[in-house]
Amino acid sequence: MPSIEPEAGAEAAGFARLLEIVRRLRAPDGCPWDRAQTPYSLRGNLIEEAYEAISAIEEGDEENLREELGDLLLVLTMIAYMREQEGAFRVSEVLEHIITKLVRRHPHVFGDARKETPAEVVEQWDHIKENLEGKKPRNSALDRVPRTLPPLERAYEIQQKAAKVGFDWDGVEPVWKKLEEEIRELREAHLQGDPRRVEAEFGDLLFTTVNLGRLMGLDPTLALNGTNQKFIGRFQELERRLAAKGLTPQQAGLSVMDALWDEIKSEDQSSNSK
């Protein structure tokens, strides 16, 4: 088996120094803000830093990615150390656990198994989780979908888990038809003016849209995050162009903003096609 013992180098020293700083910040005479935090209060920071790292990846901004990964690592280390302070587990146990799990789930790398394709690796990974680690759902294939996931991510995970046991669409085409059906039902509910039915039908439409993206090999969260960033960029460019004309959005009005928006969109599309 290839050696997986960590080398005594800059990485090990760097993490040791980071943990030392976190301990100092959480000490009785440390930083009042850091001492007041809990894993619960840092949930938002964890999500925010992860998305900022994702944005840096998508933008190809390596310098910013280096910084954002550091911020994410800080939040992770802080939460792990908080649990160490409470006596739940030690930071070293977190590292030992992931190291052991990675070795166990990669027998084709650290053992004698042979897997040639990503699909074979995923199949082996699931087999190890369920048969060696005993992580089968107790009552349902959906039991292991975290309730705390944001709704969009949770819809995707629910569909992924259902698909693994064979409950899935035959392909993309039937989902297009289902999407048209959901749009029609939402329109009907809206015309009838029933708020509860409108909300339910809108949820069905979103769920079906997630299914469509999943079957196209897309992660809906990443897709929506990209669209959000694209909208922000175009809207900020719209504001800059209006300011150059001495106008605010309110002064310009919708027709002027629509015309500028179309210009910006066309320029973006032209630039991206090069």
SSE order and pairing:
Layout (H helix, E strand, L loop, with lengths): L9 H16 L6 H5 L6 H17 L2 H25 L4 H14 L2 H4 L7 H15 L18 H14 L8 H20 L2 H21 L4 H25 L4 H4 L1 H19 L2
Low-confidence segments: none
Sheet of most strands: none
How many helices does DSSP assign?
Answer: 13
Rg from C-alpha positions?
A: 24 Å
- The succession of helices and strands, N to C, reads HHHHHHHHHHHHH
User: Looking at this structure, what is the CATH superfamily of the largest domain?
Assistant: MazG-like
Strand percent estimate: under 5%
What is the end-to-end distance? 48 Å
Estimate percent helicity.
over 70%
Number of domains: 3
CATH architecture of the largest domain: Orthogonal Bundle
Q: What integer is the average pLDDT?
A: 90
Describe the structure.
With 274 residues, this protein is mostly helical. The protein has 3 domains: 95 residues, Helix Hairpins; 50 residues; 52 residues. It is 73% helix and 0% strand. It contains 13 helices and no strands. The two termini are 48 Å apart. The mean pLDDT is 90.
Quick take:
This protein has 274 residues and is mainly α. Helix content is 73%, strand content 0%.
Any key phrases for this structure?
0% strand, mainly alpha, 3 domains, 13 helices, single chain
